[in-house]
Amino acid sequence: MPDQTCSKCGAAMEPGESRELAGEEVCEDCFLDGVSITKTCDPWAVHTAKSLKDLPGGHALTPLQQKLYDLVQERGEVPILEAAAHLGLNEEKLRQEFAPLRHMEKLRACKKDDVIHLTLF
Ligand SMILES: [Zn+2]
Fold first, then answer.
1. What fold, for 4-41?
2. Local confidence band at 3 (pLDDT 50, 70, 90 cut-offs)
3. Distance from the CA of 120 to the center of ligand 1, in angstroms?
């Protein structure tokens, strides 16, 4: 009976050395690779030098969030659909980008003449 092999890279694994990743038995290296790939999908884990510089002590923004924030900062008040169009997003996607900014207390939404506007917090 040969040792188990990693289902990603085919490396032989000692019994008990395998890790489970998305239902597959993989070696430690592939497991760590897989985990770090998952992490880059997390907007909170994305740090860029620029946003860290602009936001001392704060969370880093994704490029889209930064663009949204810059737009609102420049215009003061932006109807949500206009902001979505500006970023090339639909309203649902824009709301996803907006949510963390609201959590960070950078932007908030207000209703004006039945239209939702984004404004600085
Ligand atoms: Zn492997």
1. Wheat Germ Agglutinin (Isolectin 2); domain 1 (3.30.60)
2. low
3. 47
Return the structure tokens found at 102: 């609201």
DSSP 89: -
Enumerate the domain spans of the chain. Answer: 4-41, 44-120
Separation of CA 111 and ligand 1 centre (Å) = 52
CATH numeric code, 44-120:
1.10.10.10
DSSP E strand stretches across 1-121: 4-5, 12-13, 19-21, 24-26, 77-79, 107-112, 115-120
pTM above 0.90, yes or no: no
- Per the CB < 8 A criterion, the answer to whether 86 and 112 are in contact is no
CA of 101 to the centre of ligand 1 (A): 38
Model confidence at 36, in pLDDT bands (50, 70, 90)? Answer: low
Q: How many Å from the N-terminal Cα to the C-terminal Cα in the chain?
A: 64
